[in-house]
Design goal:
Layout (H helix, E strand, L loop, with lengths): L28 E4 L5 H11 L3 E6 L14 E2 L2 E2 H4 L5 E6 L4 H12 L3 E4 L3 H6 L4 H7 L4 E6 L14 H7 L20 H24 L4 E5 H8 L1 H10 L16 E6 L2 E6 L3 H10 L3 H5 L6 H6 L1 H12 L4 H10 L4 E3 L3 H6 L1 H4 L3 E3 L9 E3 L23 H7 L4 H9 L3 E2 L21
Parallel strand pairs: 1-2, 1-6, 2-5, 6-7, 7-8
Antiparallel strand pairs: 3-4, 5-14, 9-10, 10-11, 12-13
Helix pairs in contact: 1-7, 7-8
Length: about 425
């Protein structure tokens, strides 16, 4: 059975709403069966674009990412909160016949299904192409896996740091000569979610044109390899294996953080002209004429001497003074700030890190999606749901009676949301929403 809903609601296929392009997925229903970060982040991107996203979670604790804390707000880890806004939650224990019928009903009313189960679990639930496609020819199946499920590593689990290690990202991250380091944010998981959302958008275009569903598959491994593209191509081009260089980049100089009297400033003088301006700002005119530093290739070859000379100069300035001098002559630079500085920045708080509606958390904020379309960001969406917050209304949409729903609850197949906890959030040690 294919989708029972048209791919796009609205007159002449145009999405309704006040936000124009941002609501372009109005009328699309997405069934999000994933957990942790990659799949949920994909679902949140689609929700930000106007899709209705239904998140299916296990009764009880729900998505494992809810428990990845502290830090947390009202009992949910901030990693979960950052990837699940704009969704409805159905608490459903998958695996039995009753749950299977509910799942089939949800799939048949959706245009997109996101899943991130291990290959053997996906097969058991009928979420592999060979069994899914005959039953739902007009539904897009989006599968996120650690590795290629048909490959020799397909059975292995995958988390962001494991893939950062396996694809080489950790080998080029961290201080020069130090231990391998994980990038400080989950760039593989969130990157896989972004690629999956792009794949879904392409598949929705095909669905609109042909009425045919597609199988979109994104692996964490392929995402890690994508982030390593120019490093891998460098190995192929000249055999040089890149190494960790702290804040630097092997192919450009000067292009790293330099110390000042009171902190570090990232300087990105990536062209010959910018390098000469940098020398001008630092009052090093002879350095700008030095034959060892005339081209980027020259500067890369003599990187150690170059950086020693620049460090000697930058240590003579306060960070803000050096930033002002370089900015005045057009040299790109930025102070290295911690998350606290960024979160308290008035420009950040007035822009992407914005207030979002939340019925139980005063002062709740989330980070808006990066694109600005027609001078507008996506409006703040509904907050991440409580586990099973929408179970009853979603089951009623499928035609279940109150008595049938209560029977499913009694059997432990379905759960309803518990009221949010009151008072101080024990994981944060302070009143929810109170800014320090």
């Amino acid at each position: 059975m294919g989708s029972e809903r048209d791919p796009v609601d609205g007159d002449d296929g145009q999405a309704k709403g006040e936000e124009g392009a941002w609501r372009s997925l109005t009328g699309i229903q997405v069934l999000d069966l994933s957990g942790n970060l990659a799949g949920p982040y994909c679902g949140q991107i689609l929700a930000d674009m106007g899709a209705r996203v239904i998140k299916v979670e296990r009764p009880g604790q729900g998505d494992p990412a809810r428990a990845w804390a502290p830090p947390a707000w009202r009992g949910d880890g901030t990693l979960f909160l950052a990837a699940n806004r704009g969704k409805e939650s159905l608490a459903l224990e998958l695996g039995g016949a009753e749950a299977g019928r509910i799942l089939d009903g949800l799939v048949s009313r959706s245009q997109v299904v996101i899943q991130s189960f291990r290959p053997e679990v996906a097969r058991r639930f009928g979420l592999v192409e060979e069994t899914f496609r005959p039953r739902f020819p007009g539904v897009i199946l989006c599968s996120l896996t650690a590795f290629d499920p048909q490959g020799p590593l397909g059975h292995r689990p995958g988390y962001d740091p494991l893939i950062q290690a396996y694809t080489g990202i950790m080998s080029v991250t961290g201080p020069e000569g130090g231990e391998p380091s994980r990038a400080g944010t989950s760039l593989v998981d969130m990157g896989a979610g972004m690629w999956a959302a792009l794949g879904v958008l392409a598949a929705l275009r095909k669905l609109e044109m042909t009425g045919e569903g597609s199988h979109v598959r994104v692996s964490l491994e392929d995402t890690g390899l994508a982030w390593m593209a120019y490093h891998l191509m460098g190995v192929e081009a000249c055999g040089a294996v890149p190494r960790a260089m702290g804040s630097g980049l092997g192919m450009i100089a000067p292009y790293r953080a330099f110390p000042t009297r009171d902190g570090h400033l990232m300087i990105a003088a990536g062209t010959d002209a910018l390098f000469r301006r940098c020398c001008q700002a630092l009052e090093l005119p002879e350095m700008g004429k030095d034959p060892r530093f005339q081209t980027n290739a020259d500067r890369v070859e003599h990187r150690e001497i170059l950086e020693d000379l620049l460090t000697e100069a930058t240590l003579g300035y306060a960070r803000s003074d050096l930033e002002e001098r370089l900015t005045r002559v057009g040299v790109p630079c930025a102070p290295i700030r911690d998350a606290g500085e960024v979160a308290r920045d008035p420009l950040v708080r007035g822009g992407a890190f914005r207030p979002e509606p939340h019925p139980a958390i005063e002062g709740y904020r989330g980070v808006a999606p990066p694109p600005v379309i027609d001078d507008a960001r996506a409006s703040p969406n509904s907050p991440p749901p409580r586990v099973g917050e929408h179970s009853r209304s979603l089951l009623e949409e499928l035609g279940l009676t109150g008595e049938e729903i209560e029977g499913l609850v009694d059997q432990g197949i379905v759960a309803m949301a518990h009221p949010p906890p009151d008072g101080k959030d024990p994981s944060s040690g302070r009143e929810p929403g109170v800014e320090e």
